[in-house]
Amino acid sequence: MQRPQAALRNGLAQGTAGVVASLRARAPRVHCITNDVAQNFTANVLLAAGAMPSMTLSPEEIGAFVAGAQALLVNLGTFDAKRREAASIAVATATHKHLPWVLDPVFVDRAPPRAAFALDLIRLGPSVVRLNHVEFFALSANEPSRDAILSFARSHRTVVALSGETDLVTDGERIAAIANGHPYMAKVTALGCAGSALLAACLAVEQDAFRAAVSALAIMGVAGELAGAGAAGPGSFAVGIVDALHGLNEATLVARAKVS
Amino acid sequence: MQRPQAALRNGLAQGTAGVVASLRARAPRVHCITNDVAQNFTANVLLAAGAMPSMTLSPEEIGAFVAGAQALLVNLGTFDAKRREAASIAVATATHKHLPWVLDPVFVDRAPPRAAFALDLIRLGPSVVRLNHVEFFALSANEPSRDAILSFARSHRTVVALSGETDLVTDGERIAAIANGHPYMAKVTALGCAGSALLAACLAVEQDAFRAAVSALAIMGVAGELAGAGAAGPGSFAVGIVDALHGLNEATLVARAKVS
Amino acid sequence: MQRPQAALRNGLAQGTAGVVASLRARAPRVHCITNDVAQNFTANVLLAAGAMPSMTLSPEEIGAFVAGAQALLVNLGTFDAKRREAASIAVATATHKHLPWVLDPVFVDRAPPRAAFALDLIRLGPSVVRLNHVEFFALSANEPSRDAILSFARSHRTVVALSGETDLVTDGERIAAIANGHPYMAKVTALGCAGSALLAACLAVEQDAFRAAVSALAIMGVAGELAGAGAAGPGSFAVGIVDALHGLNEATLVARAKVS
Known about the structure:
3 copies of one chain form a homotrimer.
Chain A: H1 2-26, E1 29-33, H2 39-49, E2 52-54, H3 62-67, E3 71-75, H4 81-97, E4 101-104, H5 112-123, E5 128-132, H6 133-140, H7 146-156, E6 159-163, E7 167-170, E8 175-178, H8 191-205, H9 209-229, H10 234-247, H11 250-256
Parallel strand pairs in A: 1-2, 1-3, 3-4, 4-5, 5-6
Antiparallel strand pairs in A: 6-7, 7-8
Helix pairs in contact in A: 1-8, 1-9, 1-11, 2-8, 2-10, 8-9, 9-10
C-alpha cells in the first residue's frame, strides 16, 4: 500500500508547484465574502500569490462581481444580515456559473445560528469546506477522526480541509496530510481566513478540488516556514508570509512540502 | 511620604511583569466592540500579548460571545446603530456575569451624541475608562488635572486611565504616572484602541482594576520603546510593537517601566 | 514650446517639496469615506505624511466631522447605502464650507449603479477625480488619451488624475505626467485608495488643485521607489512605503520626481 501513497505524495507536491505557476500566469479573481478583520490581509495574501481580490457585499452588485470572478469564498467570521444576504446571492450565482467556492464556517462552535446557516450552505454544495477541529465538531457532532472526515466529505459530496497541527484534506476517497507550518501562524489574526481565500484561488486554476486544497494548505504552510525563519515575532511574521508567498520558488515548494 | 510611593512603584512594576505572565498562561478571551479601522491591529496586539480576540457585533450572537469571554472592550470609534445596540447587550451581559469591561470613548469631543452615549455607559459601571485629554474635557467639562481625574474616578466609581505624554491612572484614591512610550505611537492609527483592548485583557487576569490599568499602559509603553529603537518609521514601528509585545521579557519590563 | 514645459516641470517638483513641508507643518485633517479594506492603511499613510485621518460614516455625525476637516475623500470601493448617504451629506457640507474634495470612483467599470452614482457626484464639483484607465472609460465612454482627459476635465470643470504606468494630471489646460512608482504598488491592496486620501491632504495645503494632484502622485511614486529598494516583497513594501512617506526628504523628492 506504500507505493500508491508515495506516488500520490510526489504528484501532490509537483501539482502544488503547478498551481503556484498557474496562479501567477492566470491571475484568477476571487470574490471574497469575509469578515471585517480579515479583509485587508486577505486581499494582500491573494495579490501576493498572483490572484486578484474583490470584496463587495452590496446585494445590488455582488451577483455581477461573482459572475465575473473565477472563484468564491464564503467566510462566516462576521455573521450579519448583510453578509447572509450576500452569501445567498453569491452562492446562487456561483452555482449557476459552475464556479468553485469555499465555505469557511468560522466560529460555528460559538453560536447555534452560525452552525445552522453553515449547514444550509453545505447543502448548496461548496467545493471545499475549510474548518478546524472545534468547528468540525460543531457541524458534525463528531470528533474529527480520519473516518469522521472521510464520512463527512462523502455524505456531503464535498472536500474537507481540516486545519490543525497537521492539516488533513479528503474528498471522501483520497486523504492527504500536510505537515507544514509555523507556530506564529496561530498568532496572526485572519491568517486562516486568508488561507481559505487562497484555497478558493487554487480552485480557480486546478479543477480537482482535492488537489487544489492540498496545494493551498501546502503553499501557506511552506510560506509560513520561510517567513518564520526570518521573523522577530508575529508582527514581522505577518509581513514576511506575504513576501514569501510572492517570492515562492517552485523548487523550494516541492522540496519543502510535507504531503503524505 | 516618599516611602509608600516608592513601595507602590516597585509593587506596580513587579505586578506588571506578573500580568504579562498571567496573560500568557491563561490566554483570556477579550470581546471587542471596536471601530472598523482598529479591528485587525487590535486582534494582532491581543494575540501577541497572549490573549484571544473576538469581535462579532451581531445582536443575535454578541450576548453568547461576551458571556464566554473574560473581559469586554467598548470603543466608540465607529459610532453607528449596530455598535450602540451591540454595546447595550454586551454591557448588560458583562454586568450580569461580573466581567470587567473598559470604555474607550473615542472622539466624544467631536460630536455631542457620542458624549451623551459615553456618559450613559459610564453610569453602567465600566471597570476602567481610558481616554485622552480632549475626551476627558468633553465628558467632564474640566481640564484633566490630577484633582479632576481623582474626582471623576471617585464620583463615577471607576478607574480613569488618561493617556498623554505621561499617562495617569487613578481609582479615586491611588494615582500612578507611567512615563513610557515613543513618539511614533501617535503616528500609528488604532494604537490607542489596541492599548485599550490590552487593558481589558489585563483586567481579565488582575482583579485590581487600578493595577491592571497601570500594567497595560506600562506594557504598551515599554513595547513602544523597544519597537522604536529598531524602527525606520511608523510603518516598521507598527510591526515592531507587535513583535515586542510577543517577546516582552519580564525582567526588561521591570527594568524599563517608569511608574511613579 | 520646451521652455514653458521645463519651467512647469521645475516648478512642480519644487512645489511638491513645499506641499510635503506644509503637510508636516499644518497637519490637515482629511475626512475619508472609503472602503472597508482601505481604512486602516489609508489612516496610516495620512499619519505618516503628516495629515490626520477621520473616517466616521454615521449620518448623524459626518456633517460635523467634515465641517471641521480641511479636505474630504469620497472613495466608492465599498458601495453601500450607508456610504451613499454619508457621501451626500459630506459633499454638501464640503461644498457649503468651500472644502476641497477628491472622488475616487473605484470599480465603476464593474457595476452600472456605481458609474451612475459617480457621475452624479462629478456634477457636484469634486476638486479632483482620481481614477485608472478602465474607470475613466466606464465614466466617459472614451479611451483615456491626452485629448480625452483634457476634454473631460474641461467639461466637468475638475482636475483629472489618471493613474497608470505613467500618471497623468490635467485641469483641462495644463497637463503633467508623473513617471515615478514601483511594480509592487500594484501588489498592495488599497495603495491607490490611500494615494487618493493623500491627494485630498495635499488639496488642504495647496489651493491649486492641479499642483496638489501632481504633488500627491509624485510623493507616492517617490516613496514607492524608496520602499521598493529595500523590500523583500509586497508585504515589506507596504510597511516600507509608510516609513518612506514619514521620512521623505524634500531634496530627495525634488531630485527623484519625474514630472514632465
